[in-house]
Write a structure and sequence with these properties.
heterodimer, A: about 150 residues, alpha/beta, 6 helices, about 35% helix, B: ten-stranded mixed sheet, 9 helices, about 25% strand, globular
Chain lengths: ~150, ~325
Amino acid sequence: MRVYDIMVRDVTAVTKDETVGNVLKIMSSQLLAGIPVVSEDMRVIGFASENDIIKAVVPSYFSLLQSTSFIPDMNQFLRNAILIKDKPISEYMTHPPIVVNENAMLVHVADIMIRHNTKAIPVVDDQGRLVGVVNRTNILKAAMEGAL
Amino acid sequence: MKVITVTLNPALDREFVIEDFHINELHRVAHYRDIMMSPGGKGINVSIALAKLGVQSIAIGILGGYVGRVLLAELSKLSPLISTSFVHIDQETRENISIIDPRNHTLTEINSPGPVVEKHALDLLLKRYEIFLSRAEMVVLSGSLPPNLHGDVYGVLAKTAKQRGKQVFMEVADQYIKLALQIQAPDIIKPDVREKSVVLGKELATLDDYVQAAIELVKMGCKMAVISYQIKSDIVATTDGVWLITTPLDIEISNLLGAGDAYMAAMVYKKFSSPNSDLLEVAKFGYAAALAKTKKLPKQMPEYDEIVGCLQDCQVEKLR
């Protein structure tokens, strides 16, 4: 089975100049874990995920800690959140983005998701233009139907 | 993604088929098959009709709340040829209720006003629209607007598309037409006269009123104007003349729901598949699609062969 058969055909995206605050609003209102960043001709130039934004806000040593209770200064988190709210998403997005072609086999996509620990990947056509998004649930559902 | 359909006030359509429907009475619907729930709003309906004709489209607009999510979930199940990108807001998307009575051949419709759309949501939509225009050849602007928006929104959308060399199709009620056309005339306009036979502020009563209104729309810059006349006929005006398209067949009134959207989609299809088609041929193909739609159940859009089959039942008469 190919990505085309199972992808979500929602092409909601933002441009690189969109503010982090607005990107979060869109992700929140559409229940998205991440959103593709596109050029004016819809080529995918980046991907902004919850993780990208969290990384920008929390202190860099956060990933080494087992619990947030070890963070000595929670105010630093809040200060950073306010600080980046009006910054362009291009400063925090993952780029170059991980994308898959709409004709890619699902096994290949599953492998990418596991290796890069991503929840969703933008799907592009042969010109690199956004045509949809494939997420973990799509892959798992296909796997359970024996269609991977 | 060949066509962008814009639905600024979508609806979750609820249809009830009730034999012998009367107001002020309790009706129990016997079968689930007589209760239907489907994504609606004129632009979305055009996307669904285009998918039946094998044309890719992207449906964009404003969706709100829980009802909006249900609508999107239902829409995403319909066809791989429909992509979506709706701006989501908190207020609930409206629900439109239709009661179809096959025994008495009546169609009763109750359409809600829809949510208030704030400026930032509209700005976000306009931004996305500009991006999607890079990949589309045609734009369909149709349907009602949320209560706080006015016809100038359609004018801005049409102008943005025309500036990028795209063809614009518009089907809207008269209350939006003047403001929209002051900013930008679409290529093809089909005033929505289901509720009121009024075009450009004038009540249409005689055949001549319809002809004059269609001519006026062409003078305002539209390449073609199509106005529904006495339910089963249409007045078509271009710079080359004015025609009446009709059929000798009897029309099933209770199946009219969605006929206008099938009409619009078929015109888009014809323009898309045969770019050099004569505009009258485009209108005739649209008319045949609407005729084919009236032979189907509510909201089921016609296939290509069904439309072609209806072309022989179309009669065209030159009026001017």
